[in-house]
Amino acid sequence: MSTLLPAVDTPLYEDEAEEVFGRLLDGEPSEEDIARYLTELSDRGERAGEIAGAARALRARLIPIDAPGNAIDVCGTGGDGHHTLNVSTAVALVVAACGVPVAKHGNRAASSKAGAADTLEALGLDMDAAGRTAEQTLADIGICFLFAKNHHPAMARIQPIRQKLARRTIFNLMGPLSNPAHTRRQLIGIARPAYVPIYAEAMARLGTERTFIVSGDEGLDELSLDEGNELADVQGREVTMRRVDASEAGLRHAPVEAIRGGDAVHNAKALQALLMGAPGPYRDAVLFNAAGALMVAGEVESWREGVEEASEAIDKGLAKALLECWIATVK
């Protein structure tokens, strides 16, 4: 192991992690040492202080944007291996159509078949233009896509390493904690149910008005329609753990296979059908997660109320119209 990177045997304190990941992001260690360190850290299991410290290092190097104070983000950490349809991308459109500004932070796929950026591009959104006009579209139409490569220049050297590793690392956990819009309310899905309280502690250390950290029992990085979900409700420094399932939102249970996705074109077609009102598990998954996002935003007080409001945004064509306006605006 390089002397620039510590052995993983002993967990780092938050300030130590910030220093180590600062060096890593600044490109001091070799690519081989970075890949080895990320792998060993993931195998051992990242601690809350390490996640928070690493996120602070990434935050210190990002390019920020101005955003409305009530803007939220909805995203997953990725790396769950289930290759589902793009739920959080659809949720962003639905929630924004409900009147809540959404600063969607995302990237191209690192370990899945189609990331948020890939699918939005397949839908016709000019990702380069969307990136250049993010601050404007967030202010004007209530949504933007913060392409990670545009706001995290320190990740330029890290991304190819992540793609070669093709597995989840601490960078999956750092991304949602480092939104360039400095969102104070979020719905974050993580791929490891046992990590929900650990990740929630990291978020509490960083500070938030309200964030839901969720994980499906099968390791899905979003609220699952299957048997149940771990949920951490983080408000300020306080963390409340609970269980939630689809029936609480008035939705049917469905296995993860029911929302299995494909490449960007496949996922884009499914998202288009969803916005046209197509019923089924994909719609229900989007409604479930949109309800969580609306609760986090303070727009609704219950899962069922959130599902009702999200359903209306789809069935009245508001989410579809928003996407069309977004595409037309950035051309």
From TrEMBL:
Pathway: Amino-acid biosynthesis; L-tryptophan biosynthesis; L-tryptophan from chorismate: step 2/5. It is an enzyme of class 2 (transferase). GO terms for biological process: L-tryptophan biosynthetic process. InterPro entries: Anthranilate_Pribosyl_Tfrase, Glycosyl_Trfase_fam3, Glycosyl_Trfase_fam3_N_dom, Glycosyl_Trfase_fam3_N_dom_sf, Nuc_phospho_transferase. Residues 70-319 form the Glycosyl transferase family domain. GO terms for cellular component: cytosol. GO terms for molecular function: anthranilate phosphoribosyltransferase activity; magnesium ion binding. It catalyses: N-(5-phospho-beta-D-ribosyl)anthranilate + diphosphate = 5-phospho-alpha-D-ribose 1-diphosphate + anthranilate. Anthranilate 2 binds at R162. Mg(2+) 2 binds at D221, E222. Its cofactor is Mg(2+). Keywords: Amino-acid biosynthesis, Aromatic amino acid biosynthesis, Glycosyltransferase, Magnesium, Metal-binding, Transferase, Tryptophan biosynthesis. 5-phospho-alpha-D-ribose 1-diphosphate binds at residues 76, 79-80, 84, 86-89, 104-112, 116. Its EC number is 2.4.2.18. Residues 12-61 form the Glycosyl transferase family 3 N-terminal domain. Anthranilate 1 binds at G76, N107. It holds the Pfam family Glycos_transf_3. The keyword Ribonucleoprotein does not apply. Catalyzes the transfer of the phosphoribosyl group of 5-phosphorylribose-1-pyrophosphate (PRPP) to anthranilate to yield N-(5'-phosphoribosyl)-anthranilate (PRA). In the C-terminal section; belongs to the anthranilate phosphoribosyltransferase family. Belongs to the anthranilate phosphoribosyltransferase family. Homodimer. This is Anthranilate phosphoribosyltransferase. It comes from Aurantiacibacter arachoides. The gene is trpD.
